[in-house]
Amino acid sequence: MPKFKFELLAPLDSATTYSKIKTLLKGENDFKKFDPNVSCTFDEPGQTCNIKGQQFNADLHVKTTDPKNSTVMVEVEVPFALSLFKGKIQEAIEKNLKRIL
């Protein structure tokens, strides 16, 4: 399956950013609209999250940029047929993350 990566800067420290992402993914979100069977696995010490669905897999990793800012690194794996829509997929992910950050 093809993969694509992107980064999103967050104006929050990494612990706050990770906490907000975790809250988003545990609640109702657009990922569940695309795939109701989506599941998330969280790694608190590493500040990572693995999202698995029937149509996609994604890994999110929060890294400290400086004491007041962080970066969310996102890697998404989709079936070849959906790779044509990677721009729309990235846009949807960014929209959800920017809303909470």
Report on this model:
- With 101 residues, the protein is α+β, with helices and mostly antiparallel strands.
- It has helices spanning 14-26, 30-34, 86-100, and strands at residues 3-10, 39-43, 48-52, 57-66, 69-77.
- It is globular, with a radius of gyration of 13 Å.
- It has three helices and five strands, in the order βααββββα.
- It is 33% helix and 37% strand.
- The mean pLDDT is 91.
- The longest helix is centred in the last third of the chain and has 15 residues, at 86-100.
- Strands 1-5-4-3-2 form a five-stranded antiparallel sheet, with helices on one face.
Helix share bin: 25-40%
Count of distinct strands: 5
The number of helical segments is: 3
- Which sequence of strands runs across the widest sheet? 1-5-4-3-2
Termini separation: 29 Å
Low-confidence stretches: none
Overall 3D geometry?
globular
